[in-house]
Amino acid sequence: MLKQxxxxxxxxIEWRRDFHMHPxxxxxxxxxxxxxxxxxEKMGYRVRRGVGKTGVVAxxxxxxKVVAIxxxxxxxxxxxxxxxxxxxxTPGAMHACxxxxxxxxxxxxxxxxxxxxxxxxxxxxxxPCEETTDEEGKSGAQRMFDEGAVEGVDxxxxxxxxxxxxxxxxxISEGPSGGGVDTLTATIHGKGGHGAYPHKTVDPFFLLxxxxxxxxxxxxxxxxxxxxxxxxxxxxxxxxxxxxxxxxVTLKGTLRFTSLEVHKQIREEVTRAFEIVRSLGxxxxxxxxFGGMPLVNDTYVSGVIERVGRDxxxxxxxxxxxxxxxxxxxxxxxxxxxxxxxxxxxKIDGREIxxxxxxxxxIDERALPIGTAVLVETALTFLRNES
Length: 387
Hints:
Elements lengths: L1 H6 L1 H13 L8 H14 L2 E6 L3 E7 L4 E7 L26 H15 L7 E7 L12 H7 L8 E8 L7 E2 L3 E4 L1 E10 L3 E2 L9 H13 L1 H5 L6 E9 L6 E2 L2 E10 L2 H20 L3 E10 L2 E3 L1 H15 L4 E2 L19 E7 L22 H19 L1
Parallel strand pairs: 3-4, 3-5, 5-16, 6-15
Antiparallel strand pairs: 1-2, 2-4, 6-16, 7-14, 8-12, 8-13, 9-11, 10-12
Helix pairs in contact: 2-4, 3-4, 4-10, 6-8, 9-10
């Protein structure tokens, strides 16, 4: 399959560079989605447009098991600082997370699979809005799931580029591999007053300090140390003058976890931390917004991907995935079917490494046919094993 995949390298690069030059953000992916859907229809796929607002679902084959391949399509609100010939033509938007590559490789996989005699069906999920959510707090994967994108699917796979790992490698691990996330928003109410008379106030900054100490103790003192988790405060706002103690302080942060049991426990502990405010004469408002499920790679699916990787790339071509608490909405597709995500090495040799979401992020395009081949061979392996 590597040979067939390398044979379409020009198409892969052309697709990837076109998407890179014309990045679209969130659910506003009308150009990208149209190109994807048009290409899939030319390949002979049964195509549904507008799934999850601007997502595309395409299927080929008849009967048997159904393997789904997911690719996210959205870019980021970043001003690109690269100087190559295919730099973003849209000011303030950039494919800084590799979704242009994901989309191109999935199209390449679709092309190669369209030429195979399939003992089952392959369904492609081209997803909008992985990076953010809409006005109702839903991401692209959530929207597509709600509209039946994975109904009847038996397995789901996805890949993500990794600028830290060399070309010719993939990484996969079973079990918890990525974090779920909550956003917390809170307001601490005290009693404002003059900075010269703090004893006549209920200083919300003093209350906040106690809460932050308690929040920072949750992971180290309240959770099982073998359960990865993080509680982080990223925004604090309060007061407008140096000599006035304000009446309130607002803060925002995130909770990260790898199991729903820990998710429940963290919420309880955060609420307990804020109760300190009331014991010291203040009050608070606390709101949690669920941001996404943790990524838990299925054991069987991960094993198939690992075997395919070793067959295609050799024993040194497959490594254990670096686990992270960073969030991804791919797990939304795993609610009804087992699946897994692996990472694809795209490091550019001889160049300073710029990680995901950096304005100088880029990939080594020699990785494109490799990722394409892994997708194709993994899908075929599932179908052949189940037929």
